[in-house]
Amino acid sequence: MTNHPQSNTDLLARSLSVVWHPCSQMKHYERFPLLPIAGGKGVWLYDYDKKRYLDAVSSWWVNLFGHSNPRINAALRDQLEILEHVMLAGFTHEPVVQLSERLRGLAPVGLGHCFYASDGASATEIALKMSAHYWRNSGKPDKTQFISLENSYHGETLGALSVTDVALFRTAYGALVRQQATVPSPDWRKAQAGESAESYALRCADALEQYLQQHHAQLAAFIIEPLVQGAAGMAMYHPVYLQRARQLCTQYGVHLIADEIAVGMGRTGTMFACEQAPAQNDSTSSRGGKGITPDFLCLSKGITGGYLPLSVVMTRDEIYQAFYGDEITSGFLHSHSYTGNPLACRAALATLDIFDGDDVLAANRGKAAYLNGISAPLREHRAVRNWRNTGMIWAFEVESPHSDFARRCFALALEHELLLRPIGNTIYFMPPYIIDESEMDWLVDRTLHIVDELS
Length: 455
Description:
Number of strands: 16
Oligomer: single chain
Shape: globular
Radius of gyration: 22 Å
Number of helices: 15
CATH superfamily of the domain at 73-358: Type I PLP-dependent aspartate aminotransferase-like (Major domain)
Distance between the termini: 48 Å
Structural class: alpha/beta
Strand order of the largest sheet: 4-12-11-10-7-5-6
């Protein structure tokens, strides 16, 4: 029988006794308590004491169209009466086929094969394994190494950690991980005084070329977060870097993996961030010549609108064909129990329907312009540094005397009815796409008060 909490305190005590919360030092919850959530509607979350919080981070970047979205709810209710799950090894079903067909039509041209899992780190694992196994099947078994960007984040499983450049994880799990190399990040905050974002990105691309020249015989793939490196504090960079990365990977025979787990599904202003890289007249050009096509495209987070775990790796026919044969050892050896779950696929289809029906990308451009317009007082605040925006992502650093800035900011934001989750001293906004002008006014005004108090 399900218990029904009567208050925040009731659920908080029970949770701390049995739930080990992710990426947390549990002792910190003695000083900064968990926030029990009773429900959600639109951009708002509600606790058991009837207090509301504007979800400015889309609940870890997944909730695109608001909590308890009626259209996604209806799709899931319908699917529940048809098929809740069937294994995808040896079986198939209509939602996974429909979703694959629609993704093929949306993705950069040539990405026609979909391999499903349940989360972003699993998608990274799949892309890495698939790349290395491709080279083995192609008679180049020495190509087993990977490179990623400085300060990259691609997940926290052991394979994903090998291409994740976060000191905290390296310290804790370095002995278990086959650590890979990194190349300089094109994050424009690292540019020299007077150097443009584009010039700095090209300088970083030169460093990538030098590395590829020396190591391409052992390299399977270069994995990259296109346009925005999330865990690096929303590090943003010029799309010319993607253009050069595609050129160089093609030139040196190295796969390009685009990790769009956080930035895909419209977050950067286009459905996929790779679309914003300058067009090239070669076989790696994207649909209509507007951007680049990676060898692997990883998607998760917003693909189901924040409803159910789902991830997908899309790849080209040339790579698919390298696994096609009679021997099981040449097939791709990877599986998950809930691969291609019908409910998750149906949620993803409903999410894509909203994109189509509401012309979401065009609407988001208007919302981004509005928020940029009203944010001048925050942008010009004496403690704010490096204000930046890409699509529906905003970020800035705050000069503050507090060494525990992130936790203080999180707690203070809750007092102001906001859910913020700073990365170090970086505050960022990644709100649901349904946020309206009055809610954006609220977000900017309350954040301004928070920055005042913390600086």
